[in-house]
Amino acid sequence: xxxxxxxxxxxxxxxxxxKTTTSVVDFAIPKSAMEIGIDKKYILLTYGCQGxxxxxxxxxGLLETIGFSLASDETMADLIVLNTCAIRANAENKxxxxxxxxxxxxxxxxxxxxxxxxxxxxxxxxxEKILKTYPQVKIIFGTHNLYQLPQFLERVMSNHNxxxxxxxxxxxxxxxxxxxxxSRSKAWVxxxxxxxxxCTYCIVPYTRGKERSRKPEYIIKEVQSLIDQGYHEVTxxxxxxxxxxxxxxxxxxxxxxxxxxxxxxxxxxxxxxTSHPKDFSTDLITVLAKQKNxxxxxxxxxxxxxxxxxxxxxxxxxxxxxxxxxxKIYQAIPDVSLTTDIIVGFPxxxxxxxxxxxxxxxxxRFEGAYTFVFSPRVGTPAAQFNDTVSIDEKMQRLYRLxxxxxxxxxxxxxxxxxxxxxxxxxxxxxxxxxxxxxYSEHNKLVNFRGSKTLIGTIVNVKITDAKTWSLxxxxxxx
Length: 478
Ligand code: 5AD
Ligand code: SF4
What we know:
pyruvate-formate lyase- activating enzyme, single chain, binds 5'-deoxyadenosine, CATH 2.40.50.140, 22 strands, alpha/beta, Rossmann fold, binds iron/sulfur cluster
């Protein structure tokens, strides 16, 4: 049996919410870890949501600060980090499959360090499974202590013991983490961490801890610095951005105040995700309608159109509340593009509950949605609910829902034919060397012919054709 340094997660402790205020601490790498990655290479595999993508940019920042450089492929790597997602069983199964696949690299290179972080290690059962089945994993760390990865690497490199360091309490907000961003034109900006909603199906409040908002001055400074570096777009991130600031005790400062302040900065595009309908305030709608650089694309997860299911999900709003909110948003921002998240096959969902969801989708004129089959997560209340809907029925509902969603997707694209849209160019379109692709203000994927020198800039494209998933157009020279 290998030696281990233990600090395992406890879902019960993760459920607790204390009144203690969070402190802000500036990050510094311990001197002893400063050069441990020199001449070493890493690979980072990221799963899951934008929050994880943002965390991965920090992991890259930490690794490159201590000397690591990116490996061209896994055979060249001295370190492979998996930043994982726990939201549904299939997300986790992908990671377990990957751990199995990586075994051969450890065999070929016994010093190779495999580290697993992110949401999965916050679950007791996952840590037990890794300890039992995947001896090739050397470091297990969680969401609350990713900034300590350099120390964990230092420990493994010096004594070859396994490190298991997962905290169940969130601790402080760590500022000034080094970051290596993937894009040079659009950036993620965390505005808050954690979630206090406890939707009955969701593991996030356990894996990401208590809701903690970053202080506005840090966020504004970060966005200003991105502007100075030439960024055109920021996406503000939080599990529920609409409850931003509710944890501030010394002053009142809400998400609408933050957006108002950020919209005054010279940045072309501000987006945010994700919103909880119950906290989407009238003040917020007013600010969104007024400021040109707040993008007219809102992701507003509804989850279900049945009051019975919404209650069982602990969503804290009714179908009527949601419809009311959507009415208000359309009234204030008539051309807004609304998208959503929906779960089908929640325990107790009948055909008539499902039909209510379909009716709500049609009412709301969604132009896209992430749709899921309910996946029971151990430790969440819904995993204990009596679930009588067969998997076959759940899949049928998913397909039927997707048909309706896809019609909305196509309709949302068709409305832009013959219009000239501003497109932030991401890069070359997949598979076509001379075709560029990017996103419009309404977050529509646009393909058009143009020179690669346009990548990272905002250009005008006249839309000539709409497909279900994308728009095609012609570059307009100004
Ligand atoms: N099963 C299926 N979907 C889930 N989601 C969250 N938890 C589960 C689960 N247990 C979906 C919700 C959420 C999105 C990020 O993932 O729709 O909005
Ligand atoms: Fe999960 Fe609900 Fe929090 Fe979203 S708001 S992260 S669905 S608990």
